[in-house]
Amino acid sequence: MAAAFVGVLRQLRRQERNLSGELGRVRQAIAALSASGGRGSRAASSTSEAPVRRRRRRLSAAARARISAAQKRRWAKLKAKG
After folding, report:
1. Cβ-proximal residues to 65 (8 Å cutoff; 6+ apart), any chain
2. Is residue 3 part of a domain?
3. Is residue 34 assigned to a domain?
4. Coil, helix or strand for 2?
5. Rounded average pLDDT over 45-61
6. Which of 27, 48, 71, 82 is deepest in the core (most CB within 10 A)?
């Protein structure tokens, strides 16, 4: 009877090692995707790892000018109606 428990315990420990290795690979993949700007969950992870900061996207001056001009046209249109 005791030998059966020892065998089961040994098998469980082997599975634990395999799963902990797999969990490490999954965490590495998540960190790599998060750092590359992937759209992951914004929820804080339950691990002790520091959250990965996302880089801010920067608009070119031309893009900002187009957005500004479009907004000014919208405001002018509303002002003309009212």
Report:
1. none
2. yes
3. yes
4. helix
5. 78
6. 27
**Domain presence at residue 22:** yes
Terminal CA-CA length for the chain: 88
> Which residue range forms the structural domain that includes residue 29?
1-38
What's the DSSP call for residue 36?
A: T
Residue 16 has pLDDT above 70, yes or no: yes
Residue 32 falls inside a structural domain: yes
- Is the pLDDT at 41 greater than 60, yes or no? no
**Per-residue buried b or exposed e for 29-46, using 16+ beta carbons within 10 Å of the residue's own CB:** ebeeebeeeeeeeeeeee
pTM of the model: 0.36
- Using CA atoms, how far residue 23 sits from 8, 35, 41, in Å, is 22, 18, 17
**∠ CA(65), CA(66), CA(67), 5° rounding?**
90
Average pLDDT, the chain: 85
User: Looking at the 3D structure of the chain, how many domains does it have?
Assistant: 1
